[in-house]
């Protein structure tokens, strides 16, 4: 518009021209659409000459009037309508931009806060709190996926505890619907809506919720959870609310992933720190245990036995140490720091390797093995030492004990093998070997002075026990070896050094023992074998005493004969050869019937006495038997007083050990006299053929 035109219009306004004023208004750009609308309605009413109203249709504005107007006026009003619509659209755009800027600022603040939080639980709580405020909701919850369901991990605004514990499968409730479809879902009236399941209606009643909106939490295209809000008041969630919540859910997903990564990184760091601490602890344990192992090996190398090992461990670790033998008895110990041993005197029944508790205190137990056999136990009671250290130390101490015992066993085995060689040279070697064996026995500190006896025994029920107890061959052989060890341990090994096992037969050579002592020794050896071998029985045959090692092969035959008598006659577990009587003649070998020995045992002392004392004991004994053991008849036939006869019979008992009142001893004496007569001893013939007249006994 030119200046002259504007001047003309100004002149017209002086005469009250509302159309001109309306034209002037439409030529300006209004600062505010609402104020412009008020001014426009007033001018339009003056132009029309009646009331004018504005109707909003969507984003458009329309002027309405009730009276007819000229076409020019109608055109002017249509222009006014367009002008008002544009002004309203401009203000709406401006207000929207301001609101978007404000919302963007809010979202930016929320994002910054979320990304600054590292703890996952704190992130979830922050998401729930910020979402509730952003959507002007009363309740907000964050569900995270766990396999085939989503579980509430964080919730704010709830009144019922069960809300914070919600779990939903696909299709259950609003969150379950999002879990099923992967798309946002909302309800305007929770109780009346039929698009969702009714699984949680009762909970909705308790919480008084009416509308709800839920969107998926996605990460790398995968649904990881659901974000849901509820309102207790009647309201509708708009598409703008959905867009805002989806945008926020995307940011929340990143924050959740960031927190998870942070937790994983923190866990990895903690794990590395723990691994480092464990490694340092293991290095310390290995360093200390290696020093202890070196000390123990030096102790064993220098010949230290079990007591030295106990002292070393107790001194190095300040712990109580107990070392036990095969039977579980304490053989070496050390009290550690306090020098007081509070360990049991024997290994408790049912003890197993590892950590246990005794008397309320932790104790480490470890078996000691050698040559495949368990030969003892080690018990350790620590004082301020870590369990890891004790696990290592228990094995090291057991190993040191094994080495020490193996060294002792090797020396003992070498000595045992040497003694066995001596034994079998004495029993089966030629004369020169027997004499040499006696010298070797003396070098091994095994005296062979005095009367020598051979004990020949048999392990009676090895195979039966093996079948009953399920022993295999190695276990059966171990039982046999244990039996020999038990024999050698009787009396501290002083009387039974020369002992050997072949199959199930045991041979022992003892010296300087009489009948009572050797029988007692046999009983004690049998008890030692039985107690250490689950009821193993041992039967003995025992030879006569012999003064020279050269006679030991004969002694072995005698012991075998006595063992045969034990098996045939029964009634005892130890039979002495000199007590067998004529039975030994029946059981003796064909190559050595031992007739002369039998005769000598009975008649030898009597012949010697008669020769040295001009006596008549042989004649008296013969007369006694010819008189059918009647002392009166025998005295008459010998022309002596009956008291003289009684005295002679008592002297015979003293010299031979035969009690003529016993039938067995009378039979032995009678049989010996008859054999003496058959063998043709000159002195015996004269004595036996003296003036004796047989008659029936009274």
Automatic annotation (TrEMBL):
Q: Which SMART domains match?
A: GAF (SM00065)
Pfam families documented for this protein: GAF (PF01590), GGDEF_2 (PF17853), HTH_30 (PF13556)
Among InterPro entries, the record links this protein to:
CdaR-like_regulators, CdaR_GGDEF, GAF, GAF-like_dom_sf, GGDEF_dom, PucR_C-HTH_dom, PucR_C-HTH_sf
Q: Which residues form the GGDEF domain?
A: 450-580
Q: Where are the transmembrane segments?
A: none
What's the family? Belongs to the CdaR family.
Q: What is this protein called?
A: GGDEF domain-containing protein
This chain's source organism reads Pseudonocardia hydrocarbonoxydans
């Amino acid at each position: 518009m030119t200046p002259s035109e504007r001047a003309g219009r100004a002149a017209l306004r002086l005469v009250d021209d509302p159309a001109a004023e309306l034209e002037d208004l439409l030529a300006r750009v209004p600062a505010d659409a609402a104020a412009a609308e008020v001014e426009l309605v007033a001018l339009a009413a003056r132009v029309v000459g009646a009331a004018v109203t504005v109707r909003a249709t969507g984003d458009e504005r329309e002027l309405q009037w009730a009276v007819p107007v000229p076409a020019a006026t109608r055109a002017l009003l249509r222009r006014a309508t367009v002008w008002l619509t544009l002004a309203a659209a401009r203000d709406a755009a401006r207000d929207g931009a301001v609101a978007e800027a404000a919302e963007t600022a809010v979202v930016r603040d929320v994002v910054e806060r979320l990304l600054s939080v590292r703890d996952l639980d704190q992130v979830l709580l922050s998401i729930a709190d910020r979402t509730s405020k952003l959507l002007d909701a009363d309740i907000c919850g964050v569900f995270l996926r766990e396999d085939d369901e989503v579980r509430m991990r964080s919730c704010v605004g709830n009144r019922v505890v069960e809300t914070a514990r919600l779990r939903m499968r696909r299709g259950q409730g609003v969150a379950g619907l999002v879990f099923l479809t992967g798309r946002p879902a909302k309800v305007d009236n929770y109780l009346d809506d039929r698009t969702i399941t009714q699984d949680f209606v009762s909970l909705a009643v308790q919480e008084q919720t009416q509308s709800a909106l839920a969107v998926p939490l996605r990460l790398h295209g995968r649904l990881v959870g659901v974000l849901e809000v509820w309102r207790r008041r009647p309201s509708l969630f708009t598409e703008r609310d959905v867009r805002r919540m989806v945008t926020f859910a995307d940011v929340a997903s990143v924050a959740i992933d960031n927190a998870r990564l942070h937790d994983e990184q923190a866990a990895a760091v903690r794990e590395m720190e723990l691994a480092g601490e464990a490694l340092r602890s293991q290095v310390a344990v290995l360093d200390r245990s290696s020093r202890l192992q070196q000390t123990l090996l030096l102790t064993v190398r220098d010949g230290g036995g079990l007591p030295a090992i106990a002292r070393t461990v107790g001194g190095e670790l300040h712990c109580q140490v107990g070392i036990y033998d095969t039977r579980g008895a304490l053989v070496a110990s050390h009290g550690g720091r306090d020098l007081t041993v509070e360990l049991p005197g024997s290994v408790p029944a049912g003890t197993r390797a590892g950590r246990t508790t005794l008397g309320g205190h932790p104790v480490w137990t470890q078996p000691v093995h050698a040559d495949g056999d368990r030969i003892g136990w080690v018990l350790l009671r620590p004082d301020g030492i870590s369990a890891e250290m004790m696990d290592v130390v228990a094995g090291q101490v057991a190993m040191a004990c094994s080495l020490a015992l193996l060294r002792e066993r090797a020396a003992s085995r070498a000595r045992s093998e040497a003694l066995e060689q001596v034994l079998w040279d004495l029993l089966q070697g030629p004369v020169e070997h027997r004499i040499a064996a006696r010298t070797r026995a003396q070098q091994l500190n095994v005296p062979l002075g005095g009367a020598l006896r051979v004990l020949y025994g048999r392990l009676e029920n090895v195979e039966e026990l093996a079948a009953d107890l399920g022993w295999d061959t190695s276990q059966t052989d171990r039982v046999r070896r244990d039996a020999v060890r038990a024999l050698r341990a009787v009396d501290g090994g002083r009387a039974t050094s020369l002992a050997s096992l072949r199959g199930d037969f045991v041979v022992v050579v003892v010296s300087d023992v009489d009948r009572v002592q050797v029988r007692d020794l046999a009983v004690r050896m049998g008890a030692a074998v039985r107690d250490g071998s689950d009821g193993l029985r041992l039967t003995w045959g025992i030879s006569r005493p012999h003064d020279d090692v050269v006679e030991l092969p004969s002694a072995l035959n005698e012991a075998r004969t006595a063992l045969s008598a034990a098996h045939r006659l029964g009634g005892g577990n130890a039979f002495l050869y000199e007590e067998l009587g004529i039975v030994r003649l029946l059981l003796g070998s064909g190559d050595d019937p031992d007739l002369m020995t039998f005769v000598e045992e009975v008649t030898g002392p009597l012949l010697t006495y008669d020769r040295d004392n001009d006596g008549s004991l042989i004649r008296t004994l013969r007369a006694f038997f010819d008189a059918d053991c009647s002392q009166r008849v025998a005295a008459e036939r010998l022309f002596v007083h009956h008291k003289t006869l009684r005295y002679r019979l008592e002297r015979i008992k003293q010299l031979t050990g035969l009690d003529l009142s016993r039938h067995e001893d009378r039979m032995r004496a009678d049989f010996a006299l008859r054999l003496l007569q058959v063998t043709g001893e000159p002195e015996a013939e004269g004595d036996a053929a003296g003036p004796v007249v047989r008659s029936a006994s009274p």
